[in-house]
Amino acid sequence: MGEIRNFKSGNQGGPPPNSAMPRRLAAIIVGDIASYSRLMQADEEGTHVRVKRIERDLIQPSIAEHHGSLVKTTGDGFIAIFDSPVEAVRCSIVIQQNLIGRNASLPKHSRIEYRIGVNLGDVIVETDDIYGDGVNIATRIEGIAEPGQVFISGAIYEQIKHKVVCGYESLGDRKVKNITDPVRVYRVLPDADAVGRTRGRRESILMFLLSLALLVIAGYVLWYLLAQPRSRVGQQAAAPPIVAPSASPSPQSAPSMPSPPAPQAAPAASPSPTAMPSPAASPSPVPLPSMASIQEPDMVAIRAGSFAMGSNDDATERPIHQVVIKPFAIGKYPVTVREWNKCAAAKACEFTAIGKDDAPVTNVSWTDAHQYAGWLAQATKKPYRLPSEAEWEYAARGGTQTKYWWGDKPQPGMAACKDCGDASADQPVNVGSFKPNPFGLYDMGGGVDQWVEDCWHKNYQGAPTDGSAWVGGDCTSHVLRSGSWKNDARYVRPANRDGYDTNVRYPTHGFRVALSP
pTM for the full model? Predict the structure, then answer.
């Protein structure tokens, strides 16, 4: 994690005497705690401590990590300034999604939830504050945001719409206080697919109600048509079916009520898996968790070896250092939606993934990936885990030392990325859609970003040389490898590395598993 850049430190002494105030174009985040007065009234000391902890542990580190500066805190909120609109919005998403995790175990009335507004505009910079319409608009947008959400101005949207992987819902032009012109406002949806669900929710409800109405009408018409012939045959013939059920419903229905639970009782009496095949004991068997129902990933055995890890292409990839790798196995493909949903069905993973069965699972945090590996290890009694960063790069290189495993220049048909020529702009393609590397591994560059076991460090100074995961230090962020279909070709290099918040989900993040011998 980067150190917080205090806004004052870059402006010591303020503007020169008798000179115009310095101005700059900047992205401004304004955050404010919803229902702060109510929270303080209920527990003044406790709320103050919690807010300060969030500022120290989440807000300040997130601003620093995204290359911003904290201008000031306001007791119930904060203001931050960024050179990059992209980083400002990413920072806002990270803060809000981290708060979701922090609030998950708390009752609703005790949750600390921020409203966040982001705007791009011209601001006046002073020693310890910023002013101008750029700040005022961000403040007004924050005021109309809903708790736990990020609202952005049209100016921000135009800068980030093709750069940040998320959805956007247009809320139209809004007239805000003390601002002459209406402001175009968008709601940020961290799940890129959520915008379609948001737009379609109302239509889905209407379609459901219409279908229900048609079903009721059709049922009435069917009843009417069936009832008419009986009435023509005679009242006495029609009478018994009407009178008999109402006269003695209990004797006829009582024997049939207990019968459905009977098939479930047999497995309960004999939980051993060997009792399940008996047709007499279990005519309607209920599936029980077993190894047979676990879909294990295809694994590729990697022999021991050594290699030069890192590159000089980026400061985070230095210094290049020799690493010795022990034998291990790694997933032939990234974990798929089908494989992930086995874990979700077992109630061991927190959500059911959407998408094609053979597409890589996405929108998973490092914690989610670790949870899946733990479940798989427990279910199969095999030591599944996440690969170390060194193991991942060794496997991705496939015995080569070139910039990409196929050479020093990008080539079509080798990886799914934004400028690789074959990638989908909207979603990742199915696993195995591109050529494997020399070790027989698919999608070890592009497709989805892939979590590894290591905590994030800004470079390789002090990194292990035995291939093990580097888990010391600040583990609030973990390492991502591979690059994604949303990144350009430089991100799919085997040496490329990035870090992201441990508990935050992002739509391009996936993973693959490793297996110890």
Answer: 0.55
